[in-house]
Structures are given as structure tokens and as C-alpha cells.
Amino acid sequence: MQLTMVNGVVVRADSEYEDAKDLIEDAVENPEEINIGTSVGAFTHFQLLDIQEKTDAKFNLVDAGDFSERNAALLGGQLDVIPIQLGLVNDYLESGDMKALGVLSEERLEYFPEVPTFKELGIDSTFEKFFFMGFPPETPDDIVNTFTQAVEKATKNEEYIEKAKGYGMEPEYMNPEEAENLMEERQQLYTEINKSNE
Fold first, then answer.
1. How is the beta sheet containing 7-12 ordered, strand by strand?
2. How far apart are CA 95 and CA 71, in angstroms?
3. pLDDT in the model for residue 78
């Protein structure tokens, strides 16, 4: 299991928005005029639905493919904003082609200290994303156990931890039962968010 709290929203460098508060205020005043790229049904989609629910903002949610396609559409001017893990666009942030408006973490991030959190801007939305590895149900237990032990060992490796943190990731080991419980909790949360936006 690997957790990331480095989920945020980014725009082109020439965007009028300076932070997430500017974006939200515009989306409230001009509903459905801001084109935000996402993948419908994916993590970023639920992020945006949660933000809309908590702020009365209304975006034009565009199903724009995977993150590389959304990056290209943002830089090409077809999209105004994209939600993404900041580590995935760090090169664009460093080059000045993009700027981050905010992150959905509880506190500012060690590797992106200049980016404000949504919470400090008065927007009560936080999201963590998790990554996990799974096997087909018929996989023998000894294979699953061997792999599980290897993952646990990797998440305690200092070199790996430092490299992961550079991308905004926080390696955290969870055994299969704990991981399944977390997934069930998140499924319930996303179901509730989806229902409230119907």
C-alpha cells in the first residue's frame, strides 16, 4: 500500500488564477464555464465532485483521458484546469509551464512548501490516494504471502522511502486485510459523494 497526499489542481502558468480560492470563486460566479479535465469515475472525478459539493462551485467536467492526455490538453489550451498528483507534473512546475493552485492535504507538503492547502484557503476538502497490488483470486497463498513480505520489506527501505517522498508519496505497509478494509471505506465514501452530486 502506498499513500499520497500530493493531490492538487494545476493550471497553465499564464492562468488568471493565483490559488484555489480564486478558482472556486470564479466557478461559483460563472458556473460550468471552467473546463476541468478528469477521467469520469476515477479518483480525480470524485475529488472534483467533493469540491463542488462543499463550495457550490460548478465546473464543466471534461472526460479527458489519462494524466498525460490531460497534461497535453491543459498546455494546449483545451482545458483550463486539471487535478493531478503534483509529483507527476513536477517538471512542468519547475520549468514554469504550469503552476499549482492548491493541494488536498491536511498540511503543506515538504516537497511543495509554496503550494497552499485547500483547507487553509477555506475549502474543507482533503483527499488521499492509495495504490495497492492485487492478484487474481485463484493465485496460490504462498505466492501472495511471498509477495506481501517483499512489499513490506520495500516500504521500510530508507532509499525507497526517500525516493517516493520526492514524488509526494508516503510508503505505508498494510497487510491484505487492512488494505481491503481501507478500500471498502473509500468505496463507501465515493458512493456517498456520487449520490450527493446526482
1. 82-85, 7-12, 98-103
2. 14
3. 96
Question: Is the Cα dihedral 11, 15, 21, 22 positive or negative?
Answer: negative
Taking the C-alpha atoms of residue 42 and residue 142, their distance in angstroms, rounded to an integer, is 32
Q: Categorize the per-residue pLDDT at 197 as very low, low, confident or very high, splitting at 50, 70 and 90.
A: low
Nearest-CA neighbor of 20 among 95, 127, 152?
A: 127
The span from the CA of 20 to the CA of 48, in Å, is: 12
Written as nine digits, the cell of 7 is: 493531490
Contact at 8 Å (CB) between 82 and 36? yes
> 193 near 46, Cβ under 8 Å?
yes
The residue count for the chain: 198
Burial class from Cβ neighbours inside 10 Å (0-12, 13-18, 19+) for residue 43 reads: middle
* Strand ranges (E), 42-158: 60-63, 82-85, 98-103, 129-131
Contact between residue 94 and residue 15 where contact means Cβ atoms under 8 Å apart: no
Q: In Å, what is the CA distance from 13 to each residue of 29, 123, 156?
A: 22, 22, 37
